[in-house]
Structures are given as structure tokens and as C-alpha cells.
Amino acid sequence: MSDVLSQTEIDVLLSAISTGEMDAEELKKEEIEKKEKAYDFKRALRFSKDQVRSLTRINENFARLLTSYFSAQLRTYVQISVASVDQLPYEEFVRSIPSMTILNIFLAPPLEGSIIIEVNPNIAYAMLDRQLGGKGLGVNKIDNLTEIETTLMSQLFEGALDTFKGAWSSVVDVNPSMLEFETNPQFLQMVSPNETVIVISLLTTIGESSGMINICLPHVALEPVIQKLSMHYWMSEKKHDRSPEDFRSLQKRVNQAGLAVKAELGSSQLTVNEFLNLEADDVVKLHQKVSEPVVIKIGEQPKFLAQPGKRGGRLALQIMEVLVEGDDNNE
């Protein structure tokens, strides 16, 4: 419903107030009560909006890298995008995922504690089906995975940890390693039930199957880098990311760069027929006198005027004048 009242609604409201059917003070009281919100201490918001935005950017990059990785591994159409980023109690996250699912628990020092990547069974089995040569059909049979299927799936997600490292490289260099592969969330006791976690939900499509991949990041895991997730930190880092050593190194490389230098003794115009009939000992008349200086070009840009001659038995050029941009001699 629109918050903007029509003129008819405004007239009815003013009429009700003037006739005493409605009390203006009661309307003010109701408006104040609407602004009041109950605070649930079990859902403590420990991440600022700025930090949530930074985590969203990091995981958007993670989703792109993950799309490329799974597309290459499964050799089929894969599309992954960030659907939502929420902070909630760990207990609520555990209750929200299926009773039988794919749980990849890994470490990523210097981040503390464990991190979970939960993969919806429909998506997980579509990946497994592709690995085994199928069409990528999403059939939920997670409750009775064989040892071979478990190994294949575990290796697939272990390889995906490199994309996690790449996504976080702009904030901190992490070294992820798989800790455990689990299918029952009831066995997970990572943090206390009321601990705040960030849950990033990635909408995933593999072939004709779709589902969610959820990343659970406990607050305690992000504490070592929590300050780096603020926009103020990113801007200050960007401002001071060049040290004097960087500039000196850049200057040294520029000074050592090679340039194409050539001296033009003159030019001439020939017809195609004259050019094709040139023979040994023929003389080509140039449009430049012997007494005139030679133009030295850097690349294709005229830069110096010089006098040709010899030095130490070798052909040489003595620079007579430096041309400036816009000089008539540049023609």
C-alpha cells in the first residue's frame, strides 16, 4: 500500500478529527508506538552495516570465482550469485538447514575457529552426478552416500578452497584447509548457540538443478580482521598503498625501458612504376639538402634535430636542437 494519501483520504481524515471521531493526540501516540521496536538479545547485531557491505563485496567475488571453478570441474552450465547476507544466532542457522545435508568444515588462518560451507543436497548431488558422468540431476540421496561418493564430493569442495583464498586476498591472506566433511548438522558444535554468525547465501544453478550454498562465518572467526572490513580502513589503505620504495622501483623500470630511436636522412616521392624499376646504382633524390639537420624521432614523434657525421670510425649523430611539441619543424 502507498504511504501517500489521496486528496479524498486527507479530506475524510480531517473531517473525522474535526467532528471528534478521531483524536489527533491518539494518532501521535500510535505513530510513536510504531517506531518502537522490541530488541531480541539472542539476535545481537555485532556487525555494522559497513562491515556487512564489505562481506557482501568479498563474497560476490567469491561467487564469481566459484562459478569459474565449478564450471571447469563439472563441464556444465553453472551460475552462482549472492542471494542474501544475514547475521543471526548460530542455533538459528543450524535449525534453518536440512537435517541431512553436505557440510564442509574448514580452517582459514589467520581467521580463528572453523568456517562452514553448507551445500543443499539437491545441488550437491547434481555435482556428484556430473562427476560420475551423468547429466547433473539433483536427486537427494545424501543419507546413504557411498565411501567413493563421499571422497569425490570432499575432494571437489577441498579444491574450491583456493577460490575462498582468492576472494579474501584483498583483505587478508588466508590459508584454508579442509578439517571435516559431515552430513548431519546436529553433530556440529562450532560455537555457542547464541554466538552471532554471518550467513552468506549463494543462489546456485547447475544445469537444471538449483539450490543454496550457505557460508557460515562466526563472529569469533572474523575478530582478527574485523577492523579491515570497514570502508574507512579500505579507503585509508588505498590512499597509502604506494610507498616511496614502490615509486623508486617504478622509476627504475621506466628508466630502463627500451625506446625505438631513428634518424631520417630525408624523404622522396616515387611513382609505383619508378619504385618497381629501381636497380643497383640508381640515385634517389631526397627532398632535403645536405646542409639541413636530420630529424631524430622517438617512436614516431620528432624529438631532436641533429648533424650526421662520424665518431671513432662509426656513423654518429650530434644533437643540435631539442624540438618541443607544436614546433613547426615537427611536420
Automatic annotation (TrEMBL):
* Gene3D superfamilies reported in the protein's UniProt record: CheC-like (3.40.1550.10), SpoA-like (2.30.330.10)
> This protein's superkingdom?
Bacteria
Enumerate the spans annotated as Flagellar motor switch protein FliN-like C-terminal domain: 253-322
Q: One MF term in GO for this entry?
A: cytoskeletal motor activity
GO terms for CC? bacterial-type flagellum basal body; plasma membrane
Pfam families, per database record: FliM, FliMN_C
Q: Does the keyword Cell inner membrane apply?
A: no
Q: Name one GO biological process term.
A: positive chemotaxis
SUPFAM superfamilies attached here?
CheC-like (SSF103039), Surface presentation of antigens (SPOA) (SSF101801)
Q: What is its main location?
A: other
Write down what this protein is called.
Flagellar motor switch protein FliM
**Whose protein is this, by species?**
Scopulibacillus darangshiensis
